[in-house]
Amino acid sequence: MPTHDDVDAFLTATLVGADPDGDAALAAQHAAGMPAIEVAPVNAKFLHLLARIAGARRVLEIGTLGGYSTLWLARAVPADGRVVTIEAEPANAAIARSSLERAGVADRVEILLGRGTDVLPTLDGGEPFDLVFVDADKESNTVYLDWAARLGRPGTVVVLDNVVRGGDVADAQTDDPKVRGARRGIEMLGEDPRFDATALQTLDRKGWDGVALAIVVDATASVPTSGAAGH
Questions:
Q1: In the chain, what are the domain boundaries?
Q2: Cα angle value 119/149/192 (rounded, 5°)
């Protein structure tokens, strides 16, 4: 009986295929001792296709890690497009920058160093982003979602990763801060009038998790007091 790992391998081989630059980025990340928490290849391709479907020219990524998802997003924007990615750890950013240069897409990417909660306010007032991918510390999910709406526009696509946490997101009594952050993010997407959202469970080489997908419907709507403040 095939397992979910077998299915993931089949889907990756068939729909993603050979990816030397992606493989090199992952190898560099793992050699540097970073945790293997990057998106799976099929999920990276999903992000890539979402950006293309949205016609995204400006993409914001919160959480660079080793640059694997950044690479896929950079491939999705046009040659004059821009991916702005935020990374708290300088060593991670250096690895990501090297991988992006190796893949020939570094000219489309700007890596901003610092915690997302510190860097995001510096982007206020700029050209809105067409897609925002949130994949950083889960405890700050509501803060990141708030900024996704502020820095977006009606029609901006927002992707929130790791929302199922092996099923633990359904546990209202959990005291795990990452799970609590995932729950608050989902609750915010359901309550905040700036978003229209859904979520899907995923099962791949990284196990049981999920992703929330939202669109900004009104970036200026009044925010519930339990929304962005729920951090």
A1: 4-216
A2: 125
Q: Concatenated DSSP letters for 78-135?
A: -TT-EEEEEES-HHHHHHHHHHHHHHT-GGGEEEEES-HHHHGGGGTTSPPPSEEEE-
CATH 3.40.50.150 fits 4-216, yes or no: yes
pTM exceeds 0.85 for this model? yes
φ/ψ region of 83 (left if φ > 0, alpha if ψ in -120 to 50, else beta) reads: beta
10 Å Cβ neighbour count for 22?
Answer: 22
Other C-beta atoms lying within 10 Å of the C-beta of residue 182: 27
Question: If you compute the radius of gyration of the chain from its CA atoms, what whole number of angstroms results?
Answer: 17
Q: Within 10 Å of residue 4's Cβ, how many Cβ atoms?
A: 13
Tens digits of residue pLDDT in 28-66: 999 999 998 999 999 999 999 999 999 999 999 999 999
- The span from the CA of 169 to the CA of 179, in Å, is 6
Measured distance CA(134)–CA(56) in Å, rounded: 16
Tokens of 116: 């997302």
Coil, strand or helix: which one is 211?
Answer: strand
